């Protein structure tokens, strides 16, 4: 089976592992669409970009060599848009991607995510190939009344409506998507995400922050960081010398005026090696989301055997099973989150049990391993689309 996988840096953290395992079962080529706005995104990081509007094999792209051992750079190609998604550049590069497809002649094209570039590509493909579209998040986070969010919905829905075959990563997304699209029929498939095990490749370094609990990821309103700070300051943790560490770029000014010696703020992009050690050295990670479908944060924490305290938003309670991998508290409830923080630091023996459960179920041979996920995708998604002659676009 030949699979062409079209994606962007936003999902690089999971795709490092998924493509590795998928490549053991099929012939895979990856087209990674890179623009100035996503040079540092998820686990992906480039310091500079070539000024070429070309598709360039990753073995020849400066900065990609640091991923040797994580990806096979002979399989990965950078779709290099240095204009930041201008319409003209998207169109010209999409034409080149279509020519790449024709030369490679895949059995299926797996398109990941939506946006300007992918909406144009979906229109240009016009049913030429059997295609699958991954939709990681059916909710656009932010002010639903804003022009930007409304535009994102329109672009995303255009792409989804063009596709017959949709892959979702949580069952909670099904009803949301059907309501948004007025029950337009699609063939819906499901998969899950394994632990982001590439983080284990970074060596352990000493802890410079003492005892702390950790929030990591981009700081936005929907992630509830303001509630976490409020809950932490009301908890017993400061008195016990346990600090709160917030690691990630603040996009909305939530931590702008925070001035407390017990709250450590790393308000910037966090490189992979630093993130791995922040997780390792923490007592546990906190996910205080107001809204969610699923989260890659849990998969990063689980990769390093770290328990979670998280809210009951969206699919999170299914990922962080209460009493197995961590503790669940009510979303948007600072008092309940404070209780959760106090409970976690008072039950370190149980945290060790959670850590053992995570290591058993989320390791490379566990029930949530990428090996199992790749096998399931081949048998129950790709082969069914190919056998049933389910073309991707209307």
UniProtKB/TrEMBL annotation:
GO terms for molecular function: glycosyltransferase activity. One of its GO terms (biological process) is lipopolysaccharide biosynthetic process. Keywords: Transferase. It comes from the Bacteria. This is Glycosyltransferase involved in cell wall bisynthesis. It holds the Pfam family Glyco_trans_1_4.
